[in-house]
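Standup notes
- DV: blocked on the single-chain target, sequence here:
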Amino acid sequence: MQSLARNFFSRPYLLLSLTSLFWAGNIVLGRYAAGHVPPAALSFIRWVGAFLILIAFAWPFLKRDWPTIRRYLPVMLILTFTGITIYNVMAYWGLQHTQAINALLITSVHPLLVAAWSFILYRERLTAWQTLGIALSLLGVLVILSRGDLGALKDLRFNIGDVVFFSAQIVYSFYATLIKSRPNIHPVSFLAFTIGVGAVLLTPIYAAEVAMGNTFTLDLKAILILAYITVFPSLLAYLFFNRGIELVGPNRAAPFYHLIPIFGSALAIVFLGERPELFHAAGYVCVLAGIFIGTRSQARPDKT
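- DV (later): unblocked, structure below
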């Protein structure tokens, strides 16, 4: 069993692909929850639930790694605040005030934001092949979101929700880049600390939301949404994403973010009954080709 787990967690591209699948579901459900579960409540319950599930497994690792965590406390707190606390509230608030297609389009700029932060923080530049890979996969995303008519993108209208959701992507791309500077501790320790402290930092935001009268009914719809968001885009996706970054670095991992709108459109076909079209196939080919070029053409992986 341990050898299977070790083999699974040594496959960064599989981990990053599953991460994008789970996060695609998070965007779809986050938009679906608009008007039903407020954004701070969604974020708070998500991370409290994830922490309660994880802590029993993580406690021995946390005890062992605590001295290292204390030495690197500033960077751990920055990662927690950006990747867990503020990003989630901003993203869910933005999803309550925008359309899903806008959100999927905005997520497609994530690799470019990671490249910018990598240069600012570490003076790392994209290789020519990485640049080509990102551009090609971005083209595939645009083909799918425009339904094969790139001219239709000019008719998209952006609002305050789009601005906030885009700002959330800036914050999260900073987190995705700064992970390179996290201490050398067990992945479960890192995840438990960040989501536990992140939930604590979310408490006053959630309390303020409740004080303003933004509450919700815990019905079957809310329970199913919260159950999915707690397990898949939280516990599993963050664990897989952090491990993927550790193995290949942020620049090589960034093109996989373009799989989010790809998986989003596939989920719409499977669960919402949308018909697959030729532009879906064209977009998928572009994205997969871009990921292949951006990840396979680098001579050596980024140092982590």
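- Follow-up: The radius of gyration is 19 Å.
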